[in-house]
């Protein structure tokens, strides 16, 4: 009987393993950088470019903007994602058993190589080809990525600290870097970048619903772990609403009433999507990100453009 049960167990494991794809080492290296997550910072660079007073529609502007997107997305953020995967390999194996971290014995070694190569490339390229302010911002971004994931600080242990670190490096840092790229830093654009980081903090909570089991086992106190599913939803929706209404008020304060009205309408457009998210946050979080949050990221661009010359 025991032999028969063991054979059944082995067969089940083999069948399960067959359901998961296999990856080459280079595919794993790319996966470690999580290319889909580049979209946020890359978009923030575009927003900062639109908000930069000295930026125009020339080929030069677009090429330099693309260069900064490459620096911030694949390199800086890729390093941050890789170091996060290094320290979270065991947790991710629970939350996402289909990923290589659950099966590839060299996963941590590959992650460390990514961290070194991408981090070094980020510093060298920003030092050689970009204004010194961008080099400083890149150094800050890499440092925040390290303390976000690595002990003893490991900011991600607490959802408030961890999400704040992500929001600032995903939204505010790339936005401000684009301003410096075109010698157009302004206090008003900085304030907008910080206001939208509040909403981005809320967006980060959407990622917590899928990882509650692993977070609890590993002692991570995400927003959803601390306040439950319903409480987590209230926090994220409140923070996203607050940031967008603050942005609308700030734009209106500068006399841009049409722009402020558009920002309010873009926030209102998100509300009809919320009931579906509330029914099953874990399953519907990706859908909400792709639908309702599209209005949020468009609002960032609208706000930056309206204060371009203020």
From TrEMBL:
The subcellular location is: Membrane
Return the Gene3D superfamilies for the record: UbiA prenyltransferase
**One Pfam family name from the record?**
UbiA
- For whether the record's keyword set contains Endoplasmic reticulum, the answer is no
Listed GO molecular functions? transferase activity, transferring alkyl or aryl (other than methyl) groups
Keywords, sorted A to Z: Chlorophyll biosynthesis, Membrane, Transmembrane, Transmembrane helix
Per the record, the GO terms for biological process are: chlorophyll biosynthetic process
* Transmembrane helix found in the keyword field: yes
Q: Where are the transmembrane segments?
A: 61-79, 110-128, 134-153, 160-182, 257-273, 285-307
In terms of one coarse class, where is the protein primarily found? Answer: membrane
Tell me the first and last residues of the signal peptide.
none
In terms of domain of life, where is this protein from? Bacteria
- Topology term for the membrane: Multi-pass membrane protein
Q: Which InterPro entries does this entry report, sorted A to Z?
A: Chl_synth, Prenyltransferase_related, UbiA_prenyltransferase, UbiA_sf
GO cellular component terms given for this protein: membrane
Q: What is this protein called?
A: Chlorophyll synthase ChlG
Which species is the source of this protein?
Heliorestis acidaminivorans
């Amino acid at each position: 009987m025991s032999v028969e049960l063991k054979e059944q167990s082995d067969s089940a494991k083999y069948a399960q393993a067959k359901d998961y794809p296999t990856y080459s080492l280079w595919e794993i290296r790319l996966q470690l950088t999580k290319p889909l997550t580049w979209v946020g910072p890359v978009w923030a660079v575009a927003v900062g470019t639109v908000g930069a007073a000295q930026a125009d529609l020339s080929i030069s502007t677009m090429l330099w903007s693309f260069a900064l997107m490459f620096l911030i997305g694949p390199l800086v953020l890729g390093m941050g994602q890789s170091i996060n995967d290094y320290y979270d390999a065991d947790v991710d194996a629970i939350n996402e058993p289909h990923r290589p971290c659950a099966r590839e014995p060299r996963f941590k070694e590959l992650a460390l190589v990514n961290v070194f190569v991408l981090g070094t490339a980020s510093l060298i390229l920003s030092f050689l080809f970009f204004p010194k302010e961008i080099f400083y911002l890149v150094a800050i971004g890499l440092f925040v990525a390290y303390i976000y994931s690595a002990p003893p600080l490991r900011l991600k242990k607490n959802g408030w600290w961890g999400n704040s670190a992500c929001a600032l490096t995903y939204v505010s840092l790339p936005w401000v870097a684009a301003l410096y790229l075109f010698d157009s830093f302004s206090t008003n654009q900085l304030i907008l970048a910080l206001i939208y980081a509040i909403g981005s903090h809320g967006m980060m909570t959407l990622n917590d619903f899928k990882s509650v089991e692993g977070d609890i086992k590993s002692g991570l106190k995400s927003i959803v772990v601390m306040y439950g599913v319903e409480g987590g939803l209230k926090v994220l929706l409140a923070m996203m609403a607050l940031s967008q209404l603050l942005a609308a008020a700030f734009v209106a304060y500068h006399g841009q009433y049409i722009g402020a009205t558009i920002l309010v309408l873009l926030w209102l457009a998100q509300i009809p999507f919320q009931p579906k998210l509330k029914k099953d946050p874990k399953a519907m979080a990706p859908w909400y990100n792709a639908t309702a949050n599209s209005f949020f990221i468009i609002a960032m661009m609208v706000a930056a453009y309206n204060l371009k010359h203020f």
